[in-house]
Amino acid sequence: MEFDDARAFQREDETADTQFYGFPRLCLHVDEETSRALAAWCAANLPEDGDVLDLMSAYVSHLPTAPRFRSVVGLGMNVVELKENPALTGGLIADLNARPALPLRDVSFDACILSFSIQYLVRPVEVFAEVGRVLKPGGAFHVAFSHRLFPTKAVAVWRWGSDADHAKLIARYALAARAFATPTFSCPLEPGSGFDPLYIVSATKA
After folding, report:
1. Are the CB atoms for 196 and 189 separated by under 8 Å?
2. What pTM was computed for the model?
């Protein structure tokens, strides 16, 4: 299925996302080892003392525990989850499926991380373009994914693809947004490790 197909972003559950995410889920959505692997990757790849945007943020940001960033702003759907997230220095509530515009200033972040939620975006190219707008020159957008999901809220083009398809799909989002250079791919935790796999697609602002 092509991502510009009208069916590509249909979901089994089309009720308002504000209703689905209204109840706080104060838990991890991947294995603890996978979360630690992403935190270690972020420690090595996010800019030290930088301003970081945690997009589609929740109770856990999968970032290093030791303070190392100037700021970490979480943009998510649930007030309780953002307030309970110890990594955040600030939080904003926004439903990106209802309105993909980010309520943030231009060129205000050094990096953006989106962890384990890309599969829920129904207008991903618009969101990627917005991320490009708020990143500083040379800033990077890192999208981490695994194989877990809320199946009724994931878009069709994601549900029907393999992990390799997912990496290619994210790269296509980035290029279609016309804001990023050619994306790169990494796999800090391979399938078969005994834990949830961890894949990351990264794209630098063009």
Report:
1. yes
2. 0.94
Structure tokens at 176: 């279609």
All structural domains of the chain: 17-204 (3.40.50.150)
pLDDT number for residue 29: 67
> Could you give the C-alpha distances from 22 to 6, 58, 77, 103, 201, in angstroms and in order?
28, 12, 7, 20, 29
Q: Which parts of the chain sit beneath pLDDT 50?
A: 26
Write out pLDDT tens, residues 73-123.
999 999 998 998 999 999 999 999 999 999 999 999 999 999 999 999 999
